[in-house]
Amino acid sequence: MSNEVMENEEKEKLLNLAEEKKYRQLKEALLEINEVDIASFMEELDSEKTVIVFRMLPKALATDVFAELPAESQSHIINSITDKELSEIVEDLYVDDAVDMLEELPATVVRRVLKNTTPDTRKLINQFLNYPENSAGSIMTAEYVGLKKNMTVEQSFAYIRHHGVDSETIYTCYVMDEKRHLEGVVTVKELLMNAYETRLETIMDTHVIKVTTTEDQEAVADMMNRYGLLCIPVVDSEDRLVGIITVDDVMEVMEEEATEDFEKMAAMLPSEKPYLKTSVFQLAKNRIPWLLILMLSSTITGAILVKYETAFAAVPLLVSFIPMLMDTGGNSGSQSSTMVIRGMALGEIEPSDVLKVLWKEIRVGFMVGFVLAVVNFIRLMIQYPGNTMICVTVVISMFATVVAAKTIGCTLPIGAKVLKLDPAIMASPMITTIVDAVSLMVYFNLACHLLDMAA
To answer: How many angstroms separate the Cα of 247 from the Cα of each of 61, 191, 207, 230?
Structure first.
């Protein structure tokens, strides 16, 4: 039996227990389940049972589950519990989880949450909320293990045992001076491999990979991916350690950025909510602007067709090849733009590489265009015998369109990057619209010249 079937059966069993109000059995079953799965189960419950189930969970588990719930469920639970219960939850949450929650909740709920936090926690949360959106500061957590370089390994372990319970990770520890300036990093593995009397200054790594609070979160994700880090320290403008970013936060960033790029590549405005939880109105609102732009830009194609209407009025057969040329050009351009956008996202391609990319795509365009032209010529000569010049016109247009599409497809995303725009907007729909116009101009110009020569 697959894991998916097992999970569905288990969730169904839990839902039945909740429906039958067998809360004692339900609580025993929930204690054996991961907090992520409990949150997923609670999303299936009605509002009343959501609060009941949440209240039956032990305090520590309830906080972990709360952090995994969607904003709507969190808001409902906050409005249904006492100030004391709310205070306990917020104080137990990691700061980055509390900040993520507050960014999604309505203003009235946020005020109640902040009202029921300690002054220190409230100050810390407000500090995090003031960092720029999508910056390293906005996704970091303040719960980390900070050590001093004059500590011994034995003292370090004692400190970790005492303070590590509230830290998001204890595997990597950070060495600071009295003013919290970051001096080095040491892992628990290195502590275990050295004698108790060894001082940290002799084993810590002083070449620390770090980011500033204003660094873009996507750049942070790229850096952690590049160096294979489980967490990365975040410092302020004076090189003081203010927090760390862990791998789970980076995975969320990568998912958000990938989703945003996919939506932009499909000519939609990005949406922060899951598809099934996004209203029809919001989905339409996200799609209409780009569709309007692309629809209006397609009038260029219509203008080109009007300009050359005498050409295909004289030779109607020319019209039948327009869809093939436009589709092939659009697909060719999309292939190049997709590869270049991916390369830039992974840091493989920089704007300074534009000439290298252009030269490579031109050569690819020549090879691809030649193969497509030869195959098309053979097909057209069989399908339309006696129309040699028309066949030649079509295959030369095909070749030129593919080369032009590859050139446009690779340069537009790089151009967008130079202009500080997201390269993803230069994906399939935009490339196709531009290449369609180019392919038609190439096709009809060639048709007019070649057929006039033949006449």
So the answer is: 21, 22, 20, 5
Same domain, 392 and 426: yes
Residue 175, SS3 per DSSP:
strand
Q: Are residues 124 and 158 in the same domain?
A: no
In a domain, 159, yes or no: yes
C-alpha distances in angstroms, 252 versus 246, 249, 257, 325, 449? 10, 5, 9, 41, 56
Read off the pLDDT of residues 187-234 as tens digits, 9 standing for 90 and up: 999 999 999 999 999 999 999 999 999 898 888 988 888 888 889 999
Q: What's the domain range around 30?
A: 3-130
Which bin fits 173, alpha (ψ -120 to 50), beta or left (φ > 0)? beta
- Whether residue 136 is contained in a domain is answered as no
The number of distinct structural domains making up the chain is: 3
| 292: in domain | no
What are the two backbone dihedrals, phi and then psi, of residue 233, each rounded to the nearest 5 degrees?
-75, 150
User: Model-level pTM?
Assistant: 0.58
Burial 268-305 (b: 16+ CB within 10 A, else e): beebeeeeeeeeeeeeeebbeebeeeeeeeeeebeebe
